[in-house]
Specification:
- By secondary structure, the chain is α/β, with parallel strands linked by helices.
- The protein folds into 2 domains: about 1-165 and about 230-289, Purple Acid Phosphatase, chain A, domain 2 (4-Layer Sandwich), CATH 3.60.21; about 170-225, no CATH class.
- The chain contains 10 helices and 13 strands.
- Strands 4-5-10-11 form a 4-stranded mixed beta sheet, with no helix packed on it. Strands 1-2-3 form a 3-stranded mixed beta sheet, with no helix packed on it. Strands 6-9 form a two-stranded antiparallel sheet.
- Strand 7 (about 175-180) and strand 8 form a beta hairpin.
- Helix 7 (about 130-135) packs across helix 9.
- The protein starts with a strand and ends with a strand.
Length: about 290
């Protein structure tokens, strides 16, 4: 996504909201090392603004220890598998003098959790004012804050989970679905910008649309998880959700747009060129297959 410049050669700004780390080997043809260089230093005059994703949080926690000396993210087989791309590209990742810990880990910790640029907003998964207020001005470079974020039972942990992973609504007991990684899930990613009512069903809230989610009621306690995005709010852009590669390229609402069309698994790379508009325009999407 880019801002419109008055002088294109000096004012263009790119904002990147996709995951840039922790890909499993074989998920994409992109090596992480050049991707990190591209994202950090950019190919345009001004450095791009980077948004961390859930993968970046996972990577930071995987390589950071708590006061007890244990890693903040369990280094079991599943977590290692989903982080294998990083481990392969940085074989010195355990060396404190190596490039991963000396250069890239501090940089990942420094990334802003969300961006509010006045006329539009950007976040990896979910714009939730209450959670964002708790995270405002904080950085994963702050050890105490990182420790709190690594614990899902703390207010900071709950907040950063929602902002970087989205609102996840539990399914009724005994029900599950299989996600794009072939993992069985018992909660689904929801249309967080909506205002669910008492008669809203799970299939009405799932995002992207999935025929695996049936017409079952939403648990009453899940309603408190939502903070609907106002219709008169400035546009907000996000990624994260792996919309099907063949899904139409259009916003979810006039001021809400997910730009993730499964580029990591062969879908188009989608961007939006914002030119000052209050309503997202179809013509301003840019796609690269």
């Amino acid at each position: 996504m880019s801002l419109p410049p008055s002088d294109f050669t000096t004012s263009l700004l790119a904002i990147m909201i996709a995951s840039i780390s922790s890909c499993s080997s074989g998920i994409t043809d992109l090596s992480e090392f050049p991707t990190l260089h591209l994202r950090r230093y950019g190919v345009i005059p001004n450095n791009p603004k980077i948004q961390p994703a859930n993968h970046e949080l996972n990577a930071v926690c995987y390589h950071s220890n708590g006061p007890n000396g244990k890693a903040l993210r369990i280094r079991g087989s599943r977590n290692r598998r989903t982080h294998q791309g990083t481990l392969d590209d940085f074989p010195d990742h355990a060396d404190h003098s190596g490039e991963w810990r000396r250069v890239w880990l501090p940089w990942l910790k420094s990334l802003p959790i969300s961006l509010d640029l006045g006329d539009f907003r950007a976040v990896h998964a979910c714009w939730h004012p209450q959670h964002l207020a708790l995270l405002a001005g904080r950085s994963l470079a702050d050890d105490d804050f990182l420790l709190a974020c690594a614990d899902k039972d703390t207010p900071e942990g709950e907040a950063i989970e929602a902002v970087l992973k989205g609102i996840e609504v539990p399914l009724p007991d005994g029900q599950f679905f299989t996600d794009h990684t072939w993992t069985q899930r018992r909660q689904f990613r929801a249309r967080w910008w909506e205002a669910p009512g008492d008669d809203t069903l799970c299939r009405d809230l799932v995002f992207p649309v999935s025929d695996q989610i049936g017409p079952v009621p939403v648990a009453p306690e899940a309603m408190a998880m939502f903070s609907p995005y106002p219709a008169d709010a400035r546009p907000v852009f996000f990624g994260h959700y792996f919309k099907p590669a063949d899904s139409p390229v259009h916003p979810e609402r006039h001021n809400v747009a997910c730009l993730d069309h499964s580029a990591a698994t062969g879908g188009p790379l989608v961007a939006y060129r914002w030119q000052g508009e209050a309503s997202i325009q179809y013509a301003h999407y840019v796609c690269q297959s």
